[in-house]
Amino acid sequence: MAFRKFFNSVEPLFQKDGKYEKFYPIFEMVETIFYTSNTVTKAAPHARSFVDMKRIMTYVVISLIPCILWSFYNTGLQTNLALSNLNPADLAGWRAWLLQLFGIPFNPSSIFSNMAHGALYFLPIYIITLIAGGLWEVLFATTRGHEVNEGFLVSSMLFSLTLPATTPLWMVALGISFGVVVGKEVFGGTGKNFLNPALTGRAFLYFAYPAYMSGDSVWTPVDGISSATSLGISASEGYESLVGYGITWSDAFFGTIQGSLGETSTLAIIIGLCFLLATKIANYRMIVGCLVGMIVFSSFLNWIGSDTNPMFSMPWYWHLVIGSYAFGLVFMVTEPVSGSHTNTGRYIYGALIGFMVIMIRVLNPAFPEGMMLAILFGNVFAPLIDHFVVKANILRRRTALND
Q1: Over the range 254-284, which residues count as b (16 or more CB within 10 Å of their CB) and which as e?
Q2: What is the pLDDT of residues 74-114, one digit of tens each?
Q3: How many whole angstroms separate alpha carbon 33 and alpha carbon 39?
Q4: For the whole model, what pTM was predicted?
Q5: What one-character DSSP code corresponds to residue 58?
Q6: Bond into 108 cis (ω within 30)
Q7: Preceding omega of 197 cis (within 30 degrees of 0)
Q8: CA distance 384 to 391
Q9: What is the pLDDT of residues 318-341, one digit of tens each?
Q10: d(CA 362, CA 298)
């Protein structure tokens, strides 16, 4: 109640003709963290629904919790495994100092040790993402006089989870700035962007600083440690060789492998997917389309075969669990703003992305991943897909009336 009285007492200062009128978006942002917005419809008809923007974004944040927790564990696990042959007394850096201060060992067999160590890599990246991107959000909101949208909370989490743990913090700030400004705000803000802001920022870093976003030395945050991802090994030697590196399909499914912070565990991603489907936040048509496109095209390439390209032989169930396919499928493909909006278009949109990711992974030797580029490619074509779907519906109805 004390908070409510405080907000009520200072609100007139931020309303129209108030002393701090232009800072109302900041006031509204802080107030709605603690309380539901008082804004209601002022004219009939009144649309009544419990699903508003804040609730949608809250549900997406909840669905990301398993991926975030797994990023703690797996990042700490991979780091502690790399450090197991080193003398802890020789370790430098604030993370090692902090862990030693609290008596937390570098023990890969300890869940708590792995979680604590991994959190010290994820949290700084996420905090910098929130600060840098949040400043741009507030700047554009106050300049344009609209509310600070909750969508950035989701974009900041998605962007952080797509990065390697070794990403420099200044690069994190640069990437999210590009994603927010160029990927969203220049088009008018949330709801008007045609590109996914988190992926736009990630793509910018990938092409501007490729040495920090790919290669064998970026996945484990220990100096001198080099370890390829399962997708990189498959592209060079074939997926059958993964067993020789101690990587099984179950390892890839549960997520105890190298990769970006939140993309390694298909199991954690599926838990998030179940929540999104149960709450009807994610549209199943996009997921079905993307799965069908991936399965059909990868199976077709399996049937064709190749003597020179080992990726031709990779079955669809391996494509599903390695790289960023599962993460992109659940949290990026289903993003409602930059995807198709017609039901038929959603199937086509998903299938296009599923087709493109396999084509890039298998047929383009320059990019062993492909999901990021495939989704951005789908974003560009989503309006065109909806256009032709609408035209086809109009033509079909016109034909039916004439008959």
Answers
A1: bbbbbbbbbbbbbebbebbbebbbebebbbe
A2: 999 999 988 877 766 556 688 888 998 888 988 999 999 99
A3: 15
A4: 0.87
A5: H
A6: no
A7: no
A8: 11
A9: 999 999 999 999 999 998 888 899
A10: 9
